[in-house]
Write a structure and sequence with these properties.
Layout: H1 61-71, H2 77-106, H3 112-122, E1 124-126, E2 148-155, H4 161-167, E3 179-187, E4 194-198, E5 210-211, E6 218-219, H5 230-234, H6 236-247, E7 253-257, H7 259-269, E8 272-276, E9 279-281, E10 295-296, E11 299-303, H8 305-313, H9 321-341, H10 348-361, E12 363-365, H11 371-381, E13 389-393, E14 396-398, E15 407-409, H12 413-421, E16 456-460, H13 473-483, E17 490-491, E18 502-506, H14 510-524, E19 531-534, E20 539-543, E21 581-582
Parallel strand pairs: 1-12, 2-7, 4-13, 16-17, 16-20, 18-19
Antiparallel strand pairs: 2-3, 3-4, 5-6, 7-12, 8-11, 9-10, 9-21, 14-15, 18-20
Helix pairs in contact: 1-2, 2-3, 2-10, 3-10, 7-8, 7-10
């Protein structure tokens, strides 16, 4: 990869089943293992450094406090001294934080700019999106803050000797990589809680049209391929666009790491604590070939190097894709704890090591492709408490056309996406008080055209969750719109299944098209998050399986922590499938 570009992938004429080459292939084999594997998401963003502004000369924190105490006299002298000392203490903390950041950039020999450029030159990046999902960033809350969404991707690339040595599959060197691990890190607008949401790699979802990274090739939309193929269809930007299309939530950035990158980061952190209820050895057996090679005793072990990669790739010993995601979440949770224990965001030595390793092994989207921006991003994450980090795996079922190989999301996953869009906490550990403050000033918007001038096509998608379509549903909603002044509203002859109700407007119509579509949403009580730009002629309203009755949309109020059954997957220790239990002796 070049300095400012991710690897350029072209087309892939056929997509073999993901289990033929994944993260849990036999580690040093020829890539012929049959088990599906998981893998590492990009680890917690590696803080870099940035030059601190030079301040005016001042005394030490202790001196400030002493001076304040000396100056204070009289009846209120001691109280004033304490107040001044407290302020000075805060200044001291800020000053030392600034010094730590400065040292990271400036080094010890006055070669600050050169070192800063060195770190920047390490960073490899690519475009944020690979297509157009039509999803817009959420409006700010009452305090002017917005949620932060980062897509973490684990690539199964064998393009380097290091990755082949770790992942096997010498014959796969020239194959296009797949996004075998995909996790969305959501940080709330108030930065008090976060969630890590996984989709198993073999899950079939709608994949939108994507462009290749060099812009020379276009990959058509598809509804019958697993989500991990998105990386070979247009790079990490296509994976991001697919997540936006699926969730309806805007994703700010992506980060990607490969096999060798996982090993390097685990070594830099000094090991990550993971836990199993019994000893585990994920090896080939008479029934299932391949395996990660993971071999750990009962209890907690700090894994690093190749052992960390084995943990993240293990599927057979943990029983399923869902449980593999749980193990990956345990790993990232443990890494976050370890970084917080190491004071990684303020300790100079830790910052330098993390900055050096992180910038070498993690690829990022263009808008965070400098050390300064990565550091700012890391600072937004440092205060999220571990007990407010929810780990979630999307509930799935067998995909009917290929039930032994692929999966599809359950209808209940829509509740997770709704909570994500509305920034509802996915844990129950926080207070429920709304943010106080003056509402943020909205950006000036286009004025919608008169309802009678707008062409609206209503499509019946009420069979989107496998239930029979509600007969005449499109006509019912079209009539309701006509009664509200949208006299050109009409129902489509054919339906199109949709799990969630969506309003699509022509992306070429820009802000005006969005304003017109939002006026339709408002008339029916639909949230504005249902409005998307897309390839449509006029405004198209698909009435989804979430709105099977009534002419005014009544969205159920999501409650904090009210996740679908089986979605939350935090565990103290991993269960081990019986065939792979190890007694610690043989």
């Amino acid at each position: 990869m070049g300095q400012n570009s991710v690897r350029r992938e072209g087309t892939q004429p056929s997509v073999p089943h993901a289990r033929e080459r994944g993260w849990d292939d036999e580690l040093h084999g020829a890539g012929d293992a049959t088990g599906a594997g998981g893998g590492p998401a990009a680890s917690v963003p590696a803080p870099g450094g940035r030059a601190a502004r030079r301040r005016g000369a001042g005394g030490s924190g202790d001196g400030d406090a002493t001076g304040a105490a000396t100056a204070a006299s009289g009846a209120g002298g001691r109280a004033a001294a304490r107040k001044q000392a407290k302020k000075a203490g805060k200044r001291k903390v800020l000053r030392w934080s600034a010094i730590a950041v400065s040292v990271v950039v400036l080094g010890t020999a006055g070669a600050g700019y050169a070192y800063y450029q060195h770190l920047n030159n390490n960073i490899q990046s690519g475009g944020r999106a690979g297509g157009d999902s039509g999803v817009k960033k959420a409006p700010p809350n009452a305090l002017g803050d917005t949620p932060l969404n980062i897509l973490l991707i684990g690539s199964d690339s064998r393009a380097s000797a290091a990755n082949i040595a770790l992942g096997g599959g010498k014959d796969l060197k020239d194959d296009k990589p797949r996004a075998d691990v995909q996790m969305l890190l959501h940080v709330s607008a108030d930065r008090k809680n976060a969630s890590l949401i996984s989709i198993p790699r073999d899950t079939v979802v709608p994949i939108p049209e994507c462009r290749s990274e060099d812009g020379k090739e276009t990959f058509p939309a598809t509804t019958n391929q697993p989500i991990n193929t998105t990386l070979s269809r247009g790079g990490p930007g296509c994976t991001l666009t697919t997540w936006e299309t699926l969730t309806g939530a805007y994703i700010d950035h992506w980060m990607m790491v490969d096999f060798a990158g996982v090993v390097a980061m685990a070594d830099e952190v000094g090991g990550v604590p993971v836990c199993v209820k019994t000893g585990v050895w994920d090896k080939s057996n008479a029934i299932v070939k391949g395996g990660s090679g993971l071999k750990l005793p009962k209890g907690t072990t700090e894994v690093q190097g190749e052992q960390a990669l084995q943990w993240l790739r293990t599927r057979h010993a943990f029983g399923s894709d869902q449980n593999r995601a749980k193990a990956q979440h345990m790993y990232l949770n443990g890494m976050l704890k370890k970084l917080q224990q190491q004071n990684a965001w303020t300790d100079t030595g830790r910052l330098m090591g993390l900055a050096e390793t992180g910038t070498e092994v993690i690829s990022v989207s263009d808008e965070i492709s400098t050390v300064a921006k990565l550091f700012d991003l890391g600072m937004q994450l440092k205060n999220v408490k571990v007990d407010r980090l929810s780990t979630i795996t999307i509930p799935t079922k067998e995909y009917p056309p290929r039930p032994k190989e692929w999966l599809e999301p359950l209808a209940s996953s829509e509740r997770i996406w709704s909570m994500l869009r509305d920034d509802v906490a996915m844990d129950k550990n926080g207070d429920k008080a709304p943010a106080k403050g003056k509402p943020a000033s909205p950006k000036p918007k286009k004025t919608a055209a008169a309802p009678a001038s707008l062409s609206v096509t209503v499509v019946n998608g009420t069979d989107g969750n496998g239930e029979p379509a509600v007969e005449g549903r499109a006509k019912t909603i079209a009539t309701a719109l006509q009664e509200k002044g949208f006299t050109q509203a009409d129902s489509a002859q054919e339906g199109k299944p949709g799990k969630g109700t969506v309003i699509v407007y022509p992306k070429a119509s820009g802000d005006q098209g969005r304003a017109d579509a939002e006026s339709v949403a408002t008339a029916l009580g639909l949230p504005l998050s249902t409005v998307r730009a897309g390839a449509a002629e006029g405004i198209v309203l698909t009435v989804g399986a979430d709105w099977r009755e009534g002419t005014t949309y009544e969205k159920s109020q999501d409650k904090a922590g009210d996740l679908p059954e089986g979605a939350s997957d935090k565990a103290e220790c991993m269960d081990v499938y019986s065939v792979y239990k190890w007694d610690g002796k043989s």
